[in-house]
Amino acid sequence: MGSITILVVDDERYAREELTYLLGKFPRVQVVGEAESGEAAILKALQIHPDVVFLDVEMPKMNGIEVAKTLSGFKKVPLIIFATAYPQFAAEAFRINAVDYLLKPYDERLLEQTIDRIEKTLYPAPTADSMEKLGKLAIETGGDIDYILPQNILYIYRDDKVTKIITQTDGYDVRTTLKELESRLVPFSFFRIHKGYLVNLKYVSRLTPWFNGAYQLELEGLEQKLSVSRNYVKELRQRLEL
For the residues of 11-49, what is the DSSP string, one character each? Predict the structure, then answer.
């Protein structure tokens, strides 16, 4: 599961700041832009191509419903979450395929459910049929294409402008971004333990407390210990434990 990029749109600055603050509590969420009007939202979305737009309804000139209809014509259509103080627009919002409709003031429990809904929409669980069709991961290195089994990858990390893939026997340097590889490996047991690291959970052998809530992770057959950001520790433990 990759990080989720979000554009926050609201004509009130304090409302944008509050929502951005609350979204910052979710490790997989990254607010990549803000807009204070419908027109600015469309221009910003064209520039940054967010996965999700949190969109106020009542705004001057161009309201949120109009913005959502415009965004639906984009090549990459973002998910729409309406965030508003007005419940009467909910029916119209869902007619244009909004993923959720949040009312101000924000309830953090409901916001957590919204993030969960976003994750399931962006990264649906693979079916048995799709798992059977999965092949090898194609890695282009120096003009050649190597094909590797995802289950043989220990971990992947980003080093400057190069992504390094470490398997049980080899290492590969690729230009593919970490986020892209993460999305391609969704059907497998990979987890982001740090902004720049993905690990294959099937090889995790030990978690050791480090400092300031962070942990160090050990993988089978690997002497090096990897750092786990404290923002990812809780979810990592949930993924690992029965």
Answer: SSHHHHHHHHHHHTTSTTEEEEEEESSHHHHHHHHHHH-
Q: What is the pLDDT of residues 59-112, one digit of tens each?
A: 988 999 999 999 999 988 999 999 888 787 777 777 778 888 988 889 999 999
Determine contact, residues 194/232, Cβ cutoff 8 Å.
yes
In the sheet that 4-9 helps form, which strands lie side by side, from edge to edge?
A: 29-35, 4-9, 52-55, 79-84, 100-103
- How far apart CA 168 and CA 181 sit, in angstroms, is 18
pTM, rounded to two decimals:
0.57
Cα–Cα distance for residue pair 111/109, rounded to 1 Å: 5
| Torsion sign over Cα 98, 101, 106, 109 | negative
Q: How many CB atoms lie within 10 A of CB 143?
A: 5
Phi, then psi, of 32 in degrees rounded to 5: -105, -5
Q: If you write DSSP's letter for every residue of the chain in order, what string do you get?
A: ---EEEEEE-SSHHHHHHHHHHHTTSTTEEEEEEESSHHHHHHHHHHH--SEEEE-S--SSS-HHHHHHHHTTSSSPPEEEEEES-GGGHHHHHHTT-SEEEESSPPHHHHHHHHHHHHHHHSPPPPHHHHHH--PEEEEETTEEEEE-GGGEEEEEEETTEEEEEESS-EEEE-S-HHHHHHHTTTS-EEEEETTEEEEGGGEEEEEE-STT-EEEEETT--S-EEE-HHHHHHHHHHH--
